[in-house]
């Protein structure tokens, strides 16, 4: 059997179209929301989950939704192509439980996971979410959405007047500096 080097496999996984998660509605030209996770990161979490215990695809989706307390739920259109790709790479094996396919991590999958543990930003981000009050986060998101809409209206107005534009640019720089203070 032909074996590929882990970095080659990772590069191919990242180019795989099914890893374009979280773009949301509106497509690539705007109108959609930002990606919740970077390309390719969900594969690591799925492999880690399968290392804990074998699961079927729907169970993976529900377990992720539960871990994020409903804040994020991957679509079947993102999970099932990853599972197929992981099977193609022989990182998971499939058994049947009635009509359901049950996925289990293989030795190759465990080896890949171990070799790429430092590339797993998704799990690191997921661990950050464990102690977050999601109700408060949802409320904050609503506030941020209102602020963003106000920001967009103000920026459109600023483009109409040179003095307003200078004032708006200064406001943006001051806001960025304040936000940086909060993140320290």
UniProtKB/TrEMBL annotation:
SUPFAM superfamilies: Winged helix' DNA-binding domain. InterPro entries: Tscrpt_reg_PadR_N, WH-like_DNA-bd_sf, WH_DNA-bd_sf. The lineage of its organism: Bacteria, Bacillati, Bacillota, Bacilli, Bacillales. It comes from the Bacteria. This is PadR family transcriptional regulator. Residues 46-115 form the Transcription regulator PadR N-terminal domain. It comes from Staphylococcus capitis.
């Amino acid at each position: 059997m032909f074996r590929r080097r882990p970095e080659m496999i990772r590069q191919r996984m990242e180019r795989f179209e099914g890893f374009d998660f979280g773009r949301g509605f509106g497509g690539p030209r705007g109108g959609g929301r930002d990606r919740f996770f970077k390309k390719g990161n969900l594969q690591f979490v799925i492999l880690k989950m399968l290392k804990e215990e074998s699961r079927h695809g729907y169970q993976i989706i529900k377990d992720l939704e539960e871990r994020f307390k409903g804040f994020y739920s991957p679509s079947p259109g993102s999970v099932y192509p990853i599972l197929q790709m992981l099977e193609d790479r022989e990182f998971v094996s499939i058994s049947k439980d009635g009509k359901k396919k049950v996925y289990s991590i293989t030795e190759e999958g465990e080896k890949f996971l171990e070799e790429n543990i430092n590339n797993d930003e998704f799990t690191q981000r997921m661990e950050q979410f464990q102690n977050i009050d999601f109700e408060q986060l949802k409320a904050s998101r609503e506030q941020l959405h209102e602020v963003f809409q106000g920001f967009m209206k103000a920026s459109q107005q600023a483009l109409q007047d040179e003095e307003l534009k200078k004032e708006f640019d200064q406001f943006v720089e001051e806001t960025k500096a304040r936000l940086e203070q909060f993140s320290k």
